[in-house]
Amino acid sequence: MIGIDFGTTNSVVARAHPGGVEVAQLGPGDVFRSILCFQGSARAHLAGPAAVEAYLDDPGGSRLMLSLKSHLGQKGMRDTLVFGRVMELEDLVGLFLTHLLRAAGVPQGASVVVGRPVRFVGEGADDALAEARLRAAFALAGITDLRLVPEPEAAGHRFATGLDAPAHVLVGDFGGGTSDFSVLRFTPGEPAHALGHAGIGIAGDDFDAAIMRHAVAPLLGQGGHYRVMEQALPVPVAFFAGFSRWHRLAQMRSPRMLRDIAEVARLSDVAQPLAALIGLIEDEQGLALYRAVSAVKTALSSAEEAELDFHHRGFDLRRRISRAEFEGWIGRDLTRIAACVDAALADAGMPDTMIDHVFLTGGSAYVPAVRRIFESRFGAERLAGGGEFTSVAEGLALMAAA
Hints:
single chain, alpha+beta, Nucleotidyltransferase, domain 5, 14 helices, 27% strand
């Protein structure tokens, strides 16, 4: 009767019992940051809140692994070098899961229900490969008896416990890496029946990346030029494509990448901003910067303006960002999310008018522009929310009990 929501950004474990559902207290709260940190050796590792603290104490001597789930469907991501030891992706995820299960008190050999996105992250992501890797990682953590369930279906199951009449429910689950939608039919006393699904690899991390691209990267040299044999060339976008995605920050710290940035800086008209970029990468300031960016995104859910405030070794960033500005930056993402809702309804063969309830969960469900997609289409009276960070795990636990 255990449900496990292994997320791109946060993970949650819940148990169902006769009196209801209990979410495991993992560190300072219900959620366990999906982060793995190695401290000077491939054999010395921490996860969750402890990993964050260890990294902040010694960023130069640590290797941080972020958003591991986002790599599961990528064929090109097989292994990486950790302090001289080659480790496969399944090994890394398995280590993280071992820490998560231990913190939640889940014994090895337990029977669990685990969430999975409708579509895994990435262009051309291989869902079958991702699922196989996820199962292999759980096996390395001592769990072989597991059932995988689409995450929005689990969240819908949790929501349906409060229904007293048959209903069609559209569930939107907004995670760090994916936005997933399921159309479900619920009849009290019976298992939920899934009618249609759709998912897209756009979610909270992409909204953070939009702030990085528009508010931060221009101050670090994006848009500048450098000269080679009297020819002016744009500063490579690869410098900022990697830096705008926090799970790629470790790759940015490679000697080759740092040499490339330094060489371009020597020949450029943005030498000082590029030097600041090198300093942020060398000093492992990516996590601190992303915390500041994420805080602004969260603040814009309740305020019309918020200030991005970050300082490091002469790099002083203080910029007010309006909600309208932010919504313009993520406009294309919002359009693709709305199209994904269309796909879920088409997969179910169901028009908008037949949807009785819309349940939105996940951190980005708070973003006003995201909520407007559903309010304008279904009406505010049909929208519901709650348990934005725990509803998937709770639903998984209830499904395990059933």
